[in-house]
């Protein structure tokens, strides 16, 4: 039942049942009986119901006009009844106040529990944030280390590539030198063969010349001998 559904008649009926059952009529008791969350509406309807009960109490205590001799006694009884009504009202007010205080303590207890839960959740959140910051720091450090390792690996690969290019260049130079050497050796061999052939030809020509000179000398000797 919501606060908008509470009516004076419902509060009055509940109050009458409590009176008939010998129970004190308080805001807390009405709250428990009706299950209403609005204490302000209950207090307003309860005050109106109590105000409606006062004339009935006074009417029930009215003294007949014929009993004039007991006027003083009636006045005393009326004063005592008024004092009793005031005391009852004060007791009811005290009961209402105690009920409101009890409800307030319950609400404060619930708020304290909620504050404790909030503090616990805040602590858990702070711990999670601290762990997250630590993880971020580790990730940043690992990122820097990974970048450094990548740079070192890149430099090593570049150096290796340069060395390989240098080796390949040297191999090409050696191959070219070997080819040139082979060409030079072949040319030298050809020149040696040509020189040897020329020398052989010169040796042959010299031998032929010497033989021819010997033959000419022999012929001259024969001619000289015939002349004698």
UniProtKB/TrEMBL annotation:
Pfam families: KfrA_N. Residues 7-130 form the KfrA N-terminal DNA-binding domain. Keywords: Coiled coil. Residues 104-145 form a coiled coil. It comes from the Bacteria. This is KfrA N-terminal DNA-binding domain-containing protein.
